[in-house]
Amino acid sequence: MDSLALKLVVVDLAGTTVDYGSCAPAGVFVDLFRRHGITARMEDARAPMGLQKREHILTMASLPGIASQWQAVNGRACTSEDIDLLYKEFVTLQLDSLPNYSDLIPGTLQAVTEFHKRKLKVAATTGYNQDMMEIVLKNSAARGFVPDFAVCADDVSVGRPAPWMIYATMEKAGVYPPACVLNVGDTLADVSSGRNAGVWSVGVAATGNMAAANYNEWQTLPEFEKEQRLAAAREKMLANGAHYVVSGISDCVALIDEINARLAAGERP
Looking at the annotation, which residues are catalytic? Predict the structure, then answer.
């Protein structure tokens, strides 16, 4: 039997390939609750990042600080119907904001070019819904980033941390077994979905949700603070099961030969 090798790279969108710092969704979640008299911290918005967006809102609404505020403002606990209405409002706000967060993360085009040179297919996954994903992909295409396949949370029964979006990209690409797949994302949910799918799971520490800074903010941070944020991100992602933690997607190119060597030696994710 021939030894296995990587055939597919699955990449997240916001925070991994576009929107340095994953700022588009984070800011909208804070604004959404503010519109209802609730003060949500940016940390509250970032903690569930990577989930399908309704699940993200539900997770935030369940936090003790937000739940108590909701009770005080509305005289009752937040209901499933409230979550539905919040999600509907979120969709409108997010669709309006996405065109402002369309820049590619540095290194994305070069990484995708290298993946293709090595005969790897590239698929994108996202916790955005179909309409949101289409806006992101349209703007990304104008900047040169066009994944071979794309799957969003609407395309599967349950989003991350379930493995279904990764499996859907594998089916579209005609790639199996899972050991031939590399999943790359900037959230703990990304890491978990990769592990749940049985693929190689890589966490991105600097360019997305974990470091929580847009490109200009990151460039102006003192080096010691960068190191602290990266160390904290690395610790959390490794504890969550990441096989590797890198600063950004461009660092994944160097992993290909190493993972293929591990596969040839009989190792599996």
Answer: 12, 53
